[in-house]
Specification:
single chain, 154 residues, alpha+beta, Arc Repressor Mutant, subunit A, 2 domains, globular, WH_DNA-bd_sf, WH-like_DNA-bd_sf, Helix-turn-helix domain-containing protein
């Protein structure tokens, strides 16, 4: 692998895929993985160089497919080519994500107001307000149209 940076400068945290990439139907999975590989090197504003041969062996596809996926990602505006001298192509990611390592994921419970726990001897003990239970919705569609139902369901 020929990369123009120290391996420790790569921001590789695992295989977390941002929702916007995961749900995107314009791009196939090989292109998504290629983008995430480029993004992991260039997230901090740096460029990276990976040969088409390396990418092809990494993804188990042909070098021609790699070239097509790079062109596709450039046309979508996900990456840009910062320099190319005929042999080496330097790429960088143009997308930014709001995910930060170390920040807890927001939950419904974490935003609820806290109250002092009545009857506790320790005045620092707090509890979270309970969320009111929602009424259960009846499944009226099961009660309707008995004439078309199978006797097994009765």
């Amino acid at each position: 692998m020929s990369i123009d940076m120290e391996p420790t400068e790569r921001n590789f945290q695992g295989i977390w895929i941002p929702r916007s990439i995961y749900l995107n139907k314009e791009v196939n999975w090989y292109a998504k993985i290629l983008f995430l590989e480029i993004h992991s090197f260039t997230e901090n504003g740096r460029e990276c160089y990976m040969s088409n041969r390396y990418i092809a062996s990494f993804l188990h596809i042909s070098e021609r497919q790699v070239s097509r996926y790079i062109s596709e990602l450039k046309s979508l505006g996900w990456i840009e080519e910062t320099s190319f001298n005929g042999r080496k192509r330097y790429l960088r990611s143009l997308l930014r994500f709001g995910f930060k390592m170390g920040d807890p994921a927001p939950t419904r419970v974490s935003g609820l107001p806290r109250q002092k726990c009545p009857g506790s001897m320790d005045k620092n003990v707090e509890y979270t307000k309970q969320v009111t239970k929602q009424e259960k919705k009846e499944f009226t569609f099961l009660k309707e149209g008995n004439k078309n139902r199978s006797p097994i369901l009765e």
